[in-house]
């Protein structure tokens, strides 16, 4: 019995898609192994599934790095140095941001102000005033919250005190009476 042709498009059912991926992955690894054995080819195969799992096949006696290095020599490109240059550029940019933020912190502490012109000094002053306003708002919020909590506690204590006084007054009222509770003996 022969296999029927299927339409090549994304499988919508995730379970079927994962089963198909697993079967075809095993098939392509088998083909890579056959190429290695039959043709003495150096093969490196890297696959990522939609579940973010890595699957790799590399010919015996070789590594993926060796194959990538050979690929670079053949094409005359250097992927590692390109990646290194991008990382260096990113590092330079982050250092620049760090220096700028460090300078801003020192200026807010009152240091490094000698090299600033009048416009820059005004900008630092505005930032300081804005920060001061934010600090005051936060401080007032904390004080208000603490005051509200204190008021609730005082009110609760006053209510408890009133209840205790009421209970004590009730007890004293019945203690002064000349009579007490008498049980019915005639029944």
UniProtKB/TrEMBL annotation:
Q: Which residues form a coiled coil?
A: 84-111
MF annotations from Gene Ontology: DNA binding
Domain named MADS-box: residues: 1-61
State where the protein is found: Nucleus
The UniProt record lists the K-box domain at 84-174
Tell me the InterPro entries matching this sequence: MADS-box/MEF2_TF (IPR050142), MEF2-like_N (IPR033896), TF_Kbox (IPR002487), TF_MADSbox (IPR002100), TF_MADSbox_sf (IPR036879)
The alphabetized UniProt keywords are: Coiled coil, DNA-binding, Nucleus, Transcription, Transcription regulation
Q: What is its main location?
A: nucleus
The record's section on SUPFAM superfamilies has: SRF-like
Please give an example of a GO cellular component term from this record. nucleus
Pfam family of this protein, just one? Answer: SRF-TF
Under which name does UniProt file this protein? Floral homeotic protein APETALA 3
């Amino acid at each position: 019995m022969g296999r029927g042709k299927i339409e090549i498009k994304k499988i919508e059912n995730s379970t079927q898609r994962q089963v198909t991926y697993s079967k075809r992955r095993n098939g392509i690894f088998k083909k890579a192994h056959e190429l290695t054995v039959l043709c003495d080819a150096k093969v490196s195969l890297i696959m990522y599934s939609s579940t973010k799992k890595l699957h790799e096949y590399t010919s015996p006696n070789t590594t993926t790095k060796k194959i990538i290095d050979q690929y670079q020599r053949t094409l005359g490109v250097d992927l590692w140095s390109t990646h290194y240059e991008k990382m260096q550029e990113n590092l330079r940019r982050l250092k620049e941001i760090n220096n700028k933020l460090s300078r801003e912190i020192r200026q807010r502490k009152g240091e490094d102000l000698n090299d600033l012109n009048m416009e820059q000094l005004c900008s630092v002053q505005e930032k300081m005033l804005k920060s001061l306003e934010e600090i005051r708002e936060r401080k007032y919020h904390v004080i208000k919250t603490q005051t509200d909590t204190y008021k609730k506690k005082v009110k609760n204590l006053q209510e408890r005190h009133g209840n205790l006084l009421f209970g004590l007054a009730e007890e004293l009222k019945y203690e002064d009476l000349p009579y007490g509770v008498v049980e019915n003996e005639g029944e």
